[in-house]
Amino acid sequence: MDLGLKGKNAAITGSSQGIGFAIAVALAKEGCNVALCARGRERLDRAVAEIGALGVEAHGIVADLSTEDGCRAFAEGAAEKLGGLDILVNNVGGMIPGTLDSLTPEQWSTVLNVNLMAAVYTTRYALPFLRKGRAPRILNVSGVTGKQLMPGALTTTIPNAGIIAFTKLMAGELGAAGITVNNICPGFTRTESWGPRAEAMAKVRGITPEQVRASIANQTLLGRWAEPEEIGNVAAFLVSERNSYMTGTTVEVCGGFTRYI
Ligand SMILES: NC(=O)c1ccc[n+]([C@@H]2O[C@H](COP(=O)([O-])OP(=O)(O)OC[C@H]3O[C@@H](n4cnc5c(N)ncnc54)[C@H](OP(=O)(O)O)[C@@H]3O)[C@@H](O)[C@H]2O)c1
After folding, report:
1. What fold does the segment set 9-189+226-253 form as a domain?
2. Residue nearest atom 26 in ligand 1 by C-alpha distance
3. 91 lines ligand 1 (CB under 6 A)
4. Domain spans, the chain
5. Both ends of the chain: CA-CA distance in Å?
6. Does pTM top 0.85 for this prediction?
């Protein structure tokens, strides 16, 4: 199926590695030009080179999306470098382990800014360009903790639930302008950030990181973790011209982790 992404322009937040990078690769393989973003220049440059080798335009913009200024710089910089925007993927996010007692105000502020407000501000500053785009699409990336209770996942559950609500609200506001807004909800995905996270969880539980990974895999119906490209491939369809009558929807790509009917 031709997804109709050839020659389109996409901005993807938090994209020098992990799910954001996999989404950028999936789009580039369909001929879509991409603007990537991260705080660290070195890994970003490597990501841009890898995607550029696929034969599309690829740009890297260093910005800290935990600030409104950073979100604005990325949205406006991406539109300028690509010559317009058709697609925005709000992917940036991460987890800070902790409890209600242990988490500091600074940690709360970081996690809410990066996981939730980055999507709000980047959308705000990308919208003037998206309004002029071809079959414009916004795709937010949340996570299964926004859909199903996972005790202990305080710092992802709250922003993920907020992202799902933001998706619905924006779909309502932008439908008349022909802009669709959807949300992809990945399950446990084998990204770089899980290395230190699995080790930290193993220490708390007194087991090995391999046992942590196995216990997570066992909670899915498919009995395994997702590979980042499995999220990227679904994301590419969700932002494509072929996906024309879906908006305000959350799509779970979680190997059957969520169990409600
Ligand atoms: N992996 C999973 O199992 C999983 C499951 C459900 C949902 N998710 C969600 O999927 C998204 C991606 O997760 P991931 O595991 O792929 O993350 P990751 O491997 O930690 O990658 C995060 C990316 O975002 C960039 N980044 C982080 N903070 C940033 C900031 N303040 N400003 C700009 N860029 C920043 C990082 O580069 P720099 O560090 O250089 O800035 C990196 O490129 C997140 O929203 C996460 O909540 C992940």
Report:
1. Rossmann fold (3.40.50)
2. 14
3. yes
4. 9-189+226-253, 193-225
5. 30
6. yes
